[in-house]
Amino acid sequence: MNSNENGQNASGKNKTLHVSDFYRDAVVLVTGGTGFLGKVLVEKLLRSFAVKKIILLIREKRSVSPTQRLQQMVCDPIFDTIRASVSQPSKIFDKLVAIETDFSSPDFVKEPYKSDILNETQVVFHVMASIRFDLGIQHVMDTNVTGTERLYGLLRNASRLQAIVHVSTFYSNCDRSHIEECVYDDIRFGGWDNIRRIIAPLTESEKAKLMPALIAPLPNNYSFSKKCTEVMIQQQFADLPIGIFRPPIVTPSYKEPIPGWVDCIQGITGLCIPILKQRLLWYYGEPSACPALTPVDYCIAGMITAACDISVRHEDNRVLESFGRHASKPPVYNYFFDKTPFSWQQFIELVGSGLPTRMGRKLSTLRTRVTRWKILSTITYWWMYFVAYIGDIIQSLFGRPKSNVRLVSGLKTLADVLEYFRCNSWTARNDNVKRMRSLLSKEDEALLEFDVDRIEFKDYFIQYTKGLLLELERRELRRRQKTQKGSNVNV
């Protein structure tokens, strides 16, 4: 490992990262800005840094235009802290610009917006990704690999570009028990380009049958696509100021902007629903395995800092190259902390400890568990399906829509695709993450806390459970309003 890979400049000295200065009057481009990670990123940049503009690449969705989607996003409670803390919040929100995007097309941004991006963009956060594990390979690869290739191909011509943070996942190489901060290019069958040629003439059902063998030993299309994207970046875009940021499982916020904030029920948060609803369900897995978790606000602070670090590294590389010396490859940031003090079973206990009633807290670990015995998990699912069928029968008698069995089926699908991650544990190097944390200026340390090892998890999980319960209440309210609106229309 050369001196630059250790985070040193050409003279061998570490550089302090002045993150606030880096973002002052900067134009930032964000993909995936309307998603869970993206919203927290945009809010943090607006609230804590004096950025000039944030360009959001947004696709039209269900006939809702990008501009309308941006307006809906700004109305989200996550931005209430900004509205409450400044006298003219509209001036802050005027920094947001929505540009219509269609990554399924080679010409994914039209003029004059393309020229604006190339002339103005300084910092890029590529957060957009297809994160569902159960989607077909073609859809996942088109979004996560081809879309990324198109974006970075365009940004190669951006005249003011200083840093690109490519948001990958810690599980892009989850077939390894120990993960280094490097790109692993050991894709089987000659890489994705060759696999693409193999599956091109196949039907969707044939692809579904063949892909598990082609992507093995990785467990799903999502992890495989993220690995392929990392390899593509190293092979095609190593000349750009780009770094690969690998977050683990991202969970509700710890402190910012609102303790416990979450707006999506998927992944691990989705599996917490039986705990919150105080239902009987045992998950199959290894109870003693330790999950890799990070609150979303800590993850975002790490990403924001990484952009500054990537810019410094790139400038150092240019100095090294001018002297004919070897420059490092794109840096990889394993946002992984190995002092996680709890197992999967203890995680369930921590979530249950935040339930509002004493009886609920006492019974939570009996109702929901992680078990090594798959038959016990299967029995509890049978029971949950039985209760759901009864519930749907009662709802139909009162003329209400049946939804219980559908919800249980969704939960079962989610539990199945996450089974691999409940059965395994990983170790990793995180030198780049620790190093950039040590290089933060004193002024920025107060703004950017991303050391997960410093979290008081008992306190955090109180906020975690409260945040999930609030999100379930919001969803139930929206469901009732939708049902009521439908009833009024029928009348």
Number of strands: 13
Structural class: alpha/beta
Average of per-residue pLDDT values: 89
Biggest sheet architecture: 7 strands, parallel
* Basic shape: globular
Query: In whole angstroms, how far apart are the ends?
Result: 72 Å
Write structural notes for this entry:
The chain is α/β, with parallel strands linked by helices. It is built from 21 helices and 13 strands. The protein has helices spanning 19-23, 36-48, 66-74, 80-85, 89-93, 113-120, 137-155, 192-199, 204-215, 221-236, 267-271, 273-276, 296-322, 344-352, 358-367, 374-397, 404-417, 419-422, 431-438, 442-445, 457-490, and strands at residues 27-31, 53-58, 96-100, 123-126, 163-167, 178-179, 242-246, 249-251, 281-284, 293-295, 332-334, 368-371, 427-428. A seven-stranded parallel sheet has the order 3-2-1-4-5-7-11, with helices on both faces. Strands 6-13 form a two-stranded parallel sheet. Strands 8-10 form a two-stranded parallel sheet. Strand 4 (123-126), helix 7 (137-155) and strand 5 form a beta-alpha-beta unit. Helix 7 runs parallel beside helix 10, helix 14 packs antiparallel against helix 15 and helix 16 (374-397) packs antiparallel against helix 17. The longest helix has 34 residues, at 457-490. The termini are far apart. Residues 1-7 have low confidence and may be disordered.
